[in-house]
Amino acid sequence: MAKMNDVVILGGTVAGYAAACQLLTIDPSLDVVVVTGPVQAIECPLSDWLPKSFFKASFFPKTFPTKCGATAFKKVCYHNKDLSKQMDQSFRSPAGWVVDTPKLVKSMHDLGKKMGMKVRKTTTAPAIKQLEDSVEVIGSSQVKASFLIVATDRPEDVIAELSLPVRNVPRASLMVAGLDIPLSSKSALPKLRQQFHVVEMPERSEMGIFFIHSDTIHLRVISSSTATGNRAAELSGMLSALQQDEILPADLRLSKARGAVWHPPAGVALELEVHVAKRCILAGSAGGFAESVTGHTPMPSLQSAMLAADVIAKAGKSDSPQDVLMSFKTLWRKKLADYLRPPNTSLHMLLPLLFANRRIVSRFTGALLYGESI
């Protein structure tokens, strides 16, 4: 018979490990189990960027940015579509961080283990079984707990698995194509380090980004177009243009590059009718927590998971746990809705205007990186 745990978390992701760390910060005596397994192309598997406040979560030690290899950027650079103009905004303190996503996730896994988290691996897509007073996650092994946090998978798949009575599951049209290209050393291209670059694309529905992290240069194209394709041509075109203008060197080691395409659930949380099932909360990508413009997932994943952990910790001490779980909807909307929803003015439409009006650069940067009003 499976042991009864306090909380099982489905997903070895930023959201999954953040939920575990938050629960064990609240109560170190809790039995918390994270079930890891196959993942879908929802979140960035390459280098990624983080807002400046990401590492302010209470469970992160001060040394964690160094431990996970994060490096700060203090300048945001904007390039027009023919790369003939550039507009910059500089910061005295870090404006954000760049990090290797697998290393970030591994470091959060190690932190959770140190705090007392247990991990179970499954090689098959796990099934969820909801009982009257518990939940079971059944994969290669079976884990039983009083509560469940689902922190990975597509929202539509989770809704179907839990058989929730939802009239319509929204789907995001956002697609991101990314490329990690290795550099010759961690000191290569010094003039481009500690910078975050945004590139205007020929198509208004697209935006380009590139930055350097350690010995890797990362490029991506973010597209909200509904046209078919994987955006590889657009990504290749941006790279070629940056090389032709000598912003990037011509001798990059493309044969050793890693590429990926992913489909973040951008803004889906705002339209999803329900995030709570019987003894269960949907957080991270499973709850559609991704920023609307860039599809950025790490920050909303972290925040939604911490909120879910707070609610479940309270539910575990309540005589009416389901009523407590239902408070998650009000709580996350109060804390995250403004960050997740698109700005009142389209950033894609505003981007070309930056090169004629420096006064809006600061507000544009705040909207892009932190979800602020513009």
Could you tell me the CATH topology label of the largest domain: FAD/NAD(P)-binding domain
Percent strand equals 25-35%
* Oligomeric nature of the chains: single chain
CATH class of the largest domain: Alpha Beta
How many individual helices? 11
C-alpha Rg, in Å?
21 Å
Find the count of extended strands (DSSP E, 2+ residues): 18
Q: Supply the helix-strand structural class.
A: alpha/beta
What is the CATH H-level superfamily of the largest domain? FAD/NAD(P)-binding domain
**Uncertain segments:** none
Shape: globular
What's the main sheet like?
8 strands, mixed
Q: What's the mean pLDDT score? A: 91
Percentage of residues in helical conformation: 25-40%
Short description:
The chain has helices at residues 14-26, 64-67, 101-115, 155-162, 232-244, 268-271, 298-315, 321-325, 328-340, 347-350, 361-370; strands at 4-10, 32-36, 47-51, 71-73, 75-79, 86-90, 96-100, 118-121, 127-130, 135-138, 142-150, 175-182, 195-200, 206-213, 216-223, 258-262, 276-277, 280-282.
Please give a structural write-up.
- The chain is α/β, with parallel strands linked by helices and about 375 residues long.
- The chain has two domains: about 200 residues, FAD/NAD(P)-binding domain, CATH 3.50.50; about 150 residues, D-Amino Acid Oxidase, Chain A, domain 2 (2-Layer Sandwich).
- The chain has eleven helices and 18 strands.
- Strands 1, 2, 8, 9, 10, 11, 17 and 18 form an eight-stranded mixed sheet that branches. It has a seven-stranded mixed sheet with strand order 6-5-13-14-15-12-16, sandwiched between helices.
- The longest helix has 18 residues.
- The radius of gyration is 21 Å and the shape is globular.
- It starts with a strand and ends with a helix.
